[in-house]
Design goal:
It is a single chain. With about 210 residues, this protein is an all-alpha fold. The protein has a domain of about 110 residues. The protein contains 8 helices and no strands. Helix 1 crosses helix 3 and helix 1 packs antiparallel against helix 6. The two termini are about 35 Å apart. About 10% of the residues are buried.
């Protein structure tokens, strides 16, 4: 097998790999949109059944559809913007207000959000000016913890992707090397053609002698 053929095989293999990643990313985007629409219908159905929802319910429902808290709350905002019934609008307004109360702590763990919301309300009602800033050092520390955890998750994903790409590269290299070893050389191809078609070889020799 010539070097050009080997390069062609490797090029096609890399194109297939890149194309697979693009198809997977497109599928994830389409699936996320479907999940968002399904969650929107789910919430509208619950509200229509007179079920009272809180911000934590929205997050938990979003988890069942593989949506982040931000994506889940965005769906509620869309439903709120399209509400025309006064009663439904009033319920959604209360839900949106509750969501906005927790939104400043969006990046923080869910376990600490209720406590932080409660402390925020207490600090807003206090007469001491210094108490209004009591949450600042707590939030800063928690944000640093969240950032560190996020970096670890990113590093883990990058390592997994690098490992996956390395495995694919090794497989492609092994396949190319196998074809290189097993493919016949140019001399072997000519010899095979001559051995399988002696009559044509005889005619070619006659023309050459003339």
């Amino acid at each position: 097998m010539t070097q050009g053929t080997v390069n062609l095989i490797m090029g096609i293999s890399y194109i297939i790999v890149i194309g697979s990643f693009i198809v997977f990313a497109s599928w994830m985007t389409i699936q996320r949109r479907k999940n968002a629409e399904a969650m929107k219908r789910n919430i509208e159905s619950k509200l229509g059944s007179e079920i009272n929802l809180c911000s934590r319910d929205i997050v938990n429902i979003g988890k069942s559809f593989d949506l982040t808290p931000f994506q889940s709350r965005k769906i509620v905002y869309k439903i709120f913007s399209g509400a025309n019934n006064p009663e439904a609008f009033s319920k959604l307004k209360q839900l949106v207000n509750e969501i906005e109360t927790e939104e400043p702590f969006d990046d923080l763990p869910d376990e600490v959000k209720p406590s932080l919301v409660r402390i925020t309300k207490i600090s807003e009602e206090t007469k001491e000016e210094s108490d209004k800033y009591i949450l600042s050092p707590i939030i800063q520390t928690l944000n640093k913890f969240v950032e560190l955890k996020s970096e670890q998750e990113k590093l883990k994903k990058q390592t997994t992707r690098a490992y996956f790409i390395s495995v694919i590269s090794v497989v492609i290299g092994a396949v190319s090397f196998y074809f290189t070893l097993t493919s016949p050389s140019a001399e072997e191809i000519v010899s095979e053609i001559n051995s399988t078609n002696p009559a044509q070889k005889y005619k070619v020799n006659q023309r050459t002698n003339k």
